[in-house]
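sanity check this record:
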Amino acid sequence: MRSIVRTLTVAATLFAALGMGCADKGASIRLTPTNGNAVLSQHFDDAYAVVRQTGEMDVVLSTTPKGAELTQLMHLRVLWKPMRGTKTDQPSTTNATIDWNIAGRNESLSYTGAGFVLAYRSGDDLQVTIRNAMLKLGSQRGGITDPIGPATLQGKFNAKIDAQRVDAALATLRGEPHPTAAVDGH
């Protein structure tokens, strides 16, 4: 019974922003479970990015809902920038890996996936569009259960260029000290 209550609490926390559109700050994404359940919307309070000297980009979305014991961190790693006119309906156009971690005190869910991500720098922002991405549960720990299942992912948002925040978030995920990154411009 405790597991069912916890799952419902997690689902409510994950989708507290159900139906929300774009916000002035942060980012919103849409998840469509492959089992046919309703489209879900998840808002992240913060969106930060870094453009590496190699041309790769890291985008981090994070949120800790007020009063919740769970924190969320989504990491998009854009491996290459597509040419204009690239069709997004072919598996060969997958250019990004996606990791979404939801963690509490002694429990966590980790989703993994890949997809097509467009990202263009505009001043101190990175304009990001996620298309044709898929996520599935990679691992779980503790009494928390998967409230989503395999799902497609879409979204469009701006992320602030901030290498320190991105690298700090990624180091936290790996349990490492905060590294200094080689970046383009910032």
User: Anything to note?
Assistant: Residues 2-174 form one domain.
